[in-house]
Amino acid sequence: xxxxxxxxxxxQKVQVLAKHLEKTREFTVHRNINHFYYMQKAEELNLLSEQxxxxxxxxSSLRLRLEKEYGCVFKHWSRDIRWLRHYxxxxxxxx
Length: 95
Hints:
95 residues, mainly alpha
């Protein structure tokens, strides 16, 4: 189970509990379980999950840019290093 699936499932469970507590008017239940805590934590987990998704998208975009630049630079470097080695070998043999 991935991290985001685990968080999503917990958010759903917390929201179900919060809705159940909202409907319950028994003093004993509210004295032992903090309804506000679960409402707050559901929102915090939602916000953190959204931030995590945004960070993953940015990271994915950055990874693609890095791989593209790497491929381009490596292609040029390998061509130029071969040419330089060939050129230097030619100079060495002609001397």
